[in-house]
Specification:
By secondary structure, this protein is an alpha/beta fold. The chain has 6 helices and 16 strands. It has a single domain, classed as Metallo-beta-lactamase, Chain A (4-Layer Sandwich). The chain is about 20% helix and about 30% strand.
Length: about 240
């Protein structure tokens, strides 16, 4: 792990990431998840943020995003439809984009990638479609390039992400049932050509059965390191 990047896991798929420049980013900050440490359970506890990146609109990823953005002053990056929803929730700064696009924010170059999943929330008991799910590749001077996959199954274009974007670290879901499990996440890691994997979307609920240990077993001999971060812990 490079000292030019600090990753704090907040449980589920929620992270705080600090880059070498001091830029601070929240990824899918669902602070109500059962594994989120008490110290981070309120939006204001995240402090100043430059950006919030949302992979999709499911509540276990986006339900706290508007409150976090309002408390931190961050701009929210997301798909167009999810951006409209964030604006309806009172978010003042939304930078919407779509698959294949790249934007610059707070010294970062952020590219939106494909993900295979779904994206919606409930409004008055009815599903509200919130656009295509997504992942992100984030580049920052002096820091490793990261790929945040969001909720996704394995898809062949991960080979293209590896070839074109050349990420160093991949945040990959491993829980299974709703996303990749350890077996397919290990395939993804190899296709991406990364040197490290941060496992996410595991252990939150009994239905998410994948574990970092199982991912490590699948990656044995590959030279790819699994970063096992406890909730509230920072790896750097």
């Amino acid at each position: 792990m490079s000292h030019s990047l600090a990753i704090t896991w907040l449980g589920h798929s929620a992270f705080l990431v600090r880059f070498a420049s001091g830029t601070r980013v929240a990824l899918d900050p669902w602070l109500g998840n059962p594994r989120c440490p008490t110290a981070y359970a309120k939006p204001e506890a995240l402090g100043r943020l430059d950006a919030v990146l949302l992979s999709h609109g499911h509540d276990d990823h986006a339900v706290d995003a508007a409150a976090v953005a309002r408390a931190s002053g961050a701009v929210v990056l997301c798909t167009f439809e999810l951006g409209q929803h964030m604006e309806r929730l009172g978010v003042q700064q939304v930078l919407d984009m779509n698959t294949g696009g790249t934007v610059e924010v707070a010294g970062l170059r952020v590219s939106m990638t494909y993900a295979t999943h779904s994206s919606s929330t409930l409004v008055d008991g009815r599903p509200l479609y919130l656009g295509q799910p997504a992942g992100y590749v984030v580049r920052a001077p002096g820091s490793p390039t990261i790929y945040f996959a969001g909720d996704t199954g394995l898809f062949g274009d991960m080979k293209i992400i590896g070839e074109v974007d050349k990420p160093d670290i991949a945040f990959l879901p491993i829980g299974d049932r709703y996303t990749m499990g350890p077996e397919t996440a290990a395939v993804a890691a190899r296709w991406l050509g990364v040197r490290q994997v941060v496992p996410m979307h595991w252990g939150t609920f009994p239905a998410l059965t994948g574990t970092p240990e199982a991912l490590e077993a699948r990656l044995a001999g590959s030279g790819i390191e699994v970063l096992r971060i406890a909730p509230g812990e920072t790896a750097q």
